[in-house]
Amino acid sequence: MMESPPLPLDAAASAPSRICLHEFSGRLGEQLVHFHLMRLQGSLFLWVGAAPLLSNLAVAMCTPRDSIPVSTSVLGDASDTTSSSLAQRLARKTKKQIFVSYNLENTESNFILLIENRIKEEMTAFPEKF
Amino acid sequence: MAAKPILDSKQAEEVVQGVLTEVVCTAFANSILVVVTQYGKMGTLVLVEPNVLANDIGRASLATKVLLGKDEILREPRGPGKRTCGSCPPLVHVCAKNLVTFVSQEAGNKPVLLALALKDKSIEGIKAVREVIRSCKVC
Description:
The structure holds two protein chains of two kinds.
Chain A: H1 9-14, E1 20-28, E2 31-40, E3 43-49, E4 57-63, E5 66-75, H2 82-94, E6 97-103, H3 109-125
Parallel strand pairs in A: 3-6
Antiparallel strand pairs in A: 1-2, 2-3, 4-5, 4-6
Chain B: E1 8-16, E2 19-27, E3 32-37, E4 44-51, E5 61-68, H1 91-106, E6 112-117, H2 123-134
Parallel strand pairs in B: 3-6
Antiparallel strand pairs in B: 1-2, 2-3, 4-5, 4-6
């Protein structure tokens, strides 16, 4: 269950933005894929999966030294680069530090493109959640 | 296309020792993600994992591992001419264990991935933050 108590109107304008939780889903490649997003200050946490498992985590952030954001795996099998590369591309798009946990078996590039497009679709529809 | 969310998350926000503290707990089948922040950001990532021994069905001992961020031993110099104290326990590990051991145990010895960003690391602060985490119980 998501709980997000509302801020009083006068405090909302001056208070630092609170952690915002957002859930969305999409039927991609005949599979129901769930996305769980946490927006923090200048950073995002995105979990992608079909079952409630956390099997890996990668983080990426932009750097002034390179147009490609730096990324690294922090949890799970580092030889599977799906989470890191997804984090890299999202960091580039959002300009934020982004943590990504990709927990689906299908890691084919065509499928990942569907995943990214679903995320971009949600970013366009609900930009305040990202 | 709205489907029922498959992750259970709870969020809390409280002023602890004068510092705004946000906690988010998310339950997975194989772990619990706990975000504790006084900076509005993820901070240091610590994995708190039970070492379950073959014969030990009850309380497992917990190992802490810093996955991302600061991991250093805190040393307190005692002034010129005096010996420094022996190696002090790494503060991040101590805080992590104090904050989420109960979360792991109450979830059936699941590993806890803790994102920790604290301004106040005093004993009173930690105890108070632990209660905020307790109010966000998800499992």
